[in-house]
Amino acid sequence: MAPFALLLNSALNNQLGADPAKTIVDELGSWAMNFLWITLAITPARRVLGWRKPLLFRRMMGLYAFFYAVLHLLAVATFILGLRADLIVREVSERPYVIAGFAAFLLLIPLAVTSTRDWQARLGRRWRTLHLLVFPAALLVLLHFVWLIRASYAEATFYTILLAFLLGIRLYISRRRRY
User: Fold this and answer.
1) CB of 123 closer than 8 Å to CB of 130
2) Which of 170, 126, 124, 166 is nearest to 33 (CA)?
3) What confidence tens digit (pLDDT) does each residue in 22-56 have?
């Protein structure tokens, strides 16, 4: 919640720069992606480094990712599109980066809804299968981000390498466990 508090403080103190709407949208989107990447890093860190404690925070990190994704979506709809349904529909149907971001958001919804132990028990083995949706969601988030870049690709390259590394570790570990 600290990033939200810092953003709110910046807004209240008129420190969001020349385009406050864009700053808010960008910050919320960045934090949604950061928390998603942190969530994806917890299991490999546990397996490779033997850490147990971070596993206790994985659900919370995933829910933070969803929380910031919801705020990002609301900020776009409110500050950029003025809550105009016609503009929202047009953006979602015509712009590839919006389609990718919205598709990622749709994939995150069932993950957030079913994140409780009660849902784990209800769904049994299907819960784990359902939560594999985090991987295509992460790829769509990355695609959304890359398609938005207009200047330097350094940050996009960093996030791409980081995601490839996290997914590569998971793949390596899962293959090693089979043999």
Assistant:
1) yes
2) 166
3) 999 999 999 999 999 999 999 888 888 887 787 78
Smallest Cα–Cα separation from 34: which of 147, 126, 159?
A: 159
113 Cβ neighbours under 8 A, 6+ residues apart = 119
User: According to the 3-state scheme, what is the secondary structure of the chain?
Assistant: CHHHHHHHHHHHCCCCCCCHHHHHHHHHHHHHHHHHHHHHHHHHHHHHHCCCHHHHHHHHHHHHHHHHHHHHHHHHHHHHCCCCHHHHHHHHHHCHHHHHHHHHHHHHHHHHHCCCHHHHHHHCHHHHHHHHHHHHHHHHHHHHHHHHCCCCCHHHHHHHHHHHHHHHHHHHHHHHHHC
CB 108 within 8 A of CB 71: no
Decide if 141 contacts 101 (C-beta within 8 A). yes
The verdict on pTM exceeding 0.90 is yes
